[in-house]
Write a structure and sequence with these properties.
Blueprint lengths: L10 H4 L4 E4 L2 H5 L4 E7 L4 E6 L3 E5 L4 E5 L3 E6 L5 E6 L4 E7 L2 E6 L2 E6 L3 E8 L8 E5 L16 E3 L2 E3 L9 E5 L4 E3 L11 E9 L6 E7 L6 E6 L2 E8 L2 E7 L7 E8 L3 E6 L2 E7 L15 E2 L7 H6 L2 E3 L1 E10 L5 H11 L1
Length: 343
């Protein structure tokens, strides 16, 4: 292949003969959420950040679009662009990868590597700006484990692994709207916290009932993302009064939802990277001190069956994926980055 120098590079760049170098301001500004190690057939190796969020895979049964964050390893066979993908869920897929080049931002610039020259690509998760303050993260890719180091693992109660946004099996959990839920530990967010943010991907076929997507229990500090009166609410109870930031939620479509809390100031709800609702908040603690009101994904205080039935509070009907809980407010650009990275 030819080497085209778009900008001045080091001597190392002149030794590379299999790549085309390009400079991309957008790529440089993109959040470094992944790191890759690309092994070439000639024994060389390139380490850097991919400028793609996903790759196409044409299998025998379907054309798929797979986010890089779901992939652990890509092994290219000797056939043109054919590869075996090992996913984080433990599954493997085989097919033809598109596009025909894999761009990586390395120390010498953005390197577009021909797939015919690649032996393997190892993908590694890397800390990004949006991981600061991330106290719990539930990808819900076949289990309810917390992927941070804090150990807030959940327990699946009747929910079933299912296909997520990227048409990949076991990349979300489905809830039946009756008893299915996932319990998570109390105390992830305390009642006296100055700020926190909740991020989650949701899909539901209905908006006519009060249904719980994410509940931080009143045992330690109550907050909830729920459908109510045909809208999606990010709700908090302070001084015995309910305060909700509200927005429209499309049905039967995967939607990224973020709730942002600033003590004594306001609560906001963001839909697909845009702020759609907010409400002012009084000074005061979140409701707490109710030991039976435990936290859950897809349910309100699971042990409070009689209370839920009395108020016709339903469990979630639909799918949930990628639940993130932060101990701080997310900035607008971080929310937009989360939506773009996961979309």
């Amino acid at each position: 292949m030819t080497v085209t120098a778009i900008r001045r590079v080091s001597l190392v760049a002149l030794l590379v003969t299999s790549f085309t170098f390009t400079a991309s301001r957008a790529a440089v500004q993109k959040a470094d959420t992944l790191q890759v190690s690309v092994s070439l057939r000639d024994g060389s190796r390139i380490i850097g950040n991919p400028t793609l969020d996903s790759i196409g895979l044409q299998t025998r049964y379907a054309a798929l679009r797979i986010p890089l964050r779901l992939i652990n390893l890509i092994e290219f066979t000797k056939k043109e662009s054919e590869a075996i993908l090992s996913l984080s869920s433990g599954e493997k897929l085989m097919g033809t990868v598109t596009p025909g080049v894999f761009p990586v931002r390395s120390l010498v610039g953005v390197v577009s590597i021909r797939q015919d020259d690649i032996s393997t690509i190892v993908l590694l998760q890397k800390m990004s700006l949006s991981d600061s303050g991330l106290i719990a993260f539930y990808p819900l890719h076949g289990d309810a484990k917390d992927k941070t180091a804090h150990g807030y693992d959940g327990t699946v109660r009747g929910a079933e692994p299912c296909v997520g946004r990227s048409i990949i099996p076991n990349s979300a959990y489905c809830f039946d709207g009756k008893d299915a839920h996932i319990t998570i530990p109390d105390g992830i967010i305390r009642y006296d916290t100055p700020a926190f943010s909740l991020s989650v991907w949701l899909l539901t076929p209905r908006m006519d009932k009060q249904s719980i997507a994410l509940y931080l229990g009143a045992a330690e500090g109550e907050a909830v993302i729920q459908t109510m009166h045909g809208r999606l609410n990010f709700s908090l109870i302070i001084a015995n009064a309910v305060h909700s930031a509200s927005a429209e939620l499309p049905v039967n479509v995967w939607t990224h939802v973020v709730g942002v809390y600033r003590r004594g100031e306001r609560a906001e709800i963001w839909i697909n990277g845009e702020r759609k609702g907010e409400t002012s908040l009084p000074e005061g603690d979140l409701t707490h001190g109710f030991p039976e009101h435990h936290s859950a994904i897809g349910s309100y205080a699971p042990a409070q069956v009689a209370h839920k039935r009395g108020f016709d509070i339903r469990n979630w009907l639909g799918s949930i994926a990628d639940v993130r809980i932060y101990t701080r407010t997310l900035a607008p650009e971080e929310i937009q980055s989360l939506y773009a990275a996961d979309h």
